[in-house]
Protein 1
Amino acid sequence: MTTTTMSYVIDAPVEEVFDVVAHIENFSKAVPAIADVEFISEQRSGVGTRFRETRVMGRREATSELEVTEYEEGSLIRLVAEEGGSTWDSRFTTTAEGESTRLDFTMVATPHTFAARILDPLTKGIVAKAIRGDMEAVKAYCEV
């Protein structure tokens, strides 16, 4: 199991920051690495929402299927994906800090196959760099 955590303080209200991280249409506007989003559920928000996200990673594209498994309006969204022999469990939480927002992110990668157990620790740096890019893009988007 590999855990990645990050926190950013964003000079924007909680409602605005949450709206960006909790709704893939907005998140994909904020994060340039996201090339395409396709909903695979009728639902577009909240628990049960499922979608495919295609990202540009270096010179390639990678598509992941994600599901919202936990959602608390204004404070928490949890997304889970099964990819490459691992479960990728991600949580965004938003907390007011005066007129700003603290955005916390935690991702736990749990490998289920031998190959994933070998590769997950090796890819931790790549994953952390991508997450950092996402968080910085959200911060820049919300602070405009």
Protein 2
Amino acid sequence: MRSAFISARFLALILAGLAMLCGVAPAARAAETLTIYTYESFVADWGPGPKIKAAFEAECGCSIEWVAVADGVALLNRLKLEGRGTRADIVLGLDNNLVAEARGTGLFAPHGVDTTRLSLPMSWTDPLFLPFDYAHFAVIYDSERLKDPPKSLHDLVEGDATEKIILEDPRTSTPGLGFLLWMKAVFHDEAGAAWTKLGRRVLTVTPGWSEAYGLFTKGEAPMVLSYITSPAYHEIEEKSERYKAALFEEGHYIQIEVAGLVAGTAHEVLARRFLSFMTGPGFQDQIPTGNWMFPAGRVSSAMPAAFGSVGAPGRTFIFDPEIVAAKRQEWTAEWLDAVTR
């Protein structure tokens, strides 16, 4: 019996070896895939996404699948359409203006990450949404074409109609929504009239930031709504100080970008691991010169000097997320009515 067992075992080894030689060895266990919904510029070749993907995959032995849409508002809109049937494990790219509406979908679970080591200009205690970067919105202008940039939001509204600006749509874009709220914070009940006046200076309104900034750098208009950190890109990557941020006397509206864990994900352990990873250098090191924002977590080196050259806003505007959720439709209708007259 023993000799028969040895022979059978020997035969099995021979057959296994032949199978490997013939390329029919049993398939290795497939790596777990984490599906993350985000916005297009985050995962562009020049964005932070590719390096973040490589860093996390090397650490987890898993795979990240990015699913990208134009911008953050479009991201929430897609998630609401998909509902419980969404493929997303994590949604990355919502912001402080959308968290109340996102919370209301019931599609997110507590992230469970320690937020005490986050680095933000204000405290953050939301249990569902975890910040990964931030910056103030700003009007960026071409200093070779515009010698006297606006010094306030009032200047922008009242200024020369021949000096155009490119804006983003607040219905699909987080910068567009941020600018809508900035206008409301400054002009209050007169925001509709201010939008009508500003309309003379608006060259076009794009669905997202990428389209707007691309048109701006192609020379279509001397101004664009972007971020106070945008000139750092040109200074670092292009060695140019041509594009500058206009510091406004009234102050600037802030954006804090966040990620959230989708409730009921089949990859909860891996998703939570990614969210924890998001607060450390493996992720955060890619934010300053990948997403061109300020990091919200720990980085391994000091910020590039170009980020400090623009100066800091004298005042920060921010609406409570619950107010934004309650008023966004009304304020968007006010904007739409003004710009379509």
Protein 3
Amino acid sequence: MFPAQALADEMLARGWRVSLSTDVRGNAHAGGFHPDVARQVVAAGSFAQGSLLRRLTVPLRLLAGVIAAWRGFRADRPACVAGFGGYPAIPALAAAWMLGLPRLIHEGNAVPGQVNRRFARRVHAVACGVWPTRLPAGTRAVEIGNPVRASVKSAAATPYAPPENGVAVGAAGGAASASSSGPIRLLVFGGSQGAQVFADLVPAAVARLPKKLQARLAITQQVRADAIGNVETAYAATDVPPPVLAPFFADMPQLLAQAQLVIARAGASSLAEIAAIGRPAILIPYPHATDDHQAANAQALVAAGGALMLREEGLTGEALAGHIAPLLTEPGRAARMAASAQGQGRLDAAERLADLVIALSEGERP
């Protein structure tokens, strides 16, 4: 939803009308869209989710969704249709193809999901968030980057303050003095597919850090609601001050801006925000991601020196501590990683994607 929201905001700013076409589940996660974005909620479904009976009805639900989207597009013809992947995008993309409308898909991952893979050669362009992206032969691929929200762009202006020496290093190399005895902020997030393993690994790793370092840690960690008690108990056995634990954080861009180190999965939007704001990161890709796409996502940031990537299989708290400690005690290294990460950020991705939308709507083809 975040890249779609960023594109919607950019198109509204350019004076366009914008409509969001999604299913009931997608609409429930679209609270961040501007009120001026119209909603078209249509039926959709996935063959990989739900009961057997529900999966058997997927073709009928998709057909109903395509018909509803087709009727909507006939009544109010879009200048361009942009799909962002996942089964809720199927009705709009299928209807756009049937009507011959200008259309594109944005693929945020280095390896496209099934829906984008199937539509890749049926759209006029595939806007790639990660470059290169593994796309079917004959696809018109355009390097765009992953659009980030306005709140991320605002947070990107916050200079990175390395741990230990407390010197704030700006993107242009400027510096401002700060306290050398302040907290060291560690941000841990992984969503529903990462929070549990992080709930086990990170407290175990922190427990193996020097006690003086533990005492300076200010930890904010995404934790499943049913695991918060266990994580609190684990941290209570260390010298770490009481951490901030929650299943969801609405102010993630601000938390990233404050962090000295980030531990996270390697989802496309997460990486885009980490790079845009410029924070050193330890990435632990979700091992069951389709085609191992999270590991592929992380490659560019790792190669640039902005992040470390660790495989979850066989990873222990002791091993993770061995990677955390240097980044919290070697401020020069942390600062270099932050600068390298920000060098990979694409703050103009939403503008570039909007330019592509307008070009396609005017009949231009990549």
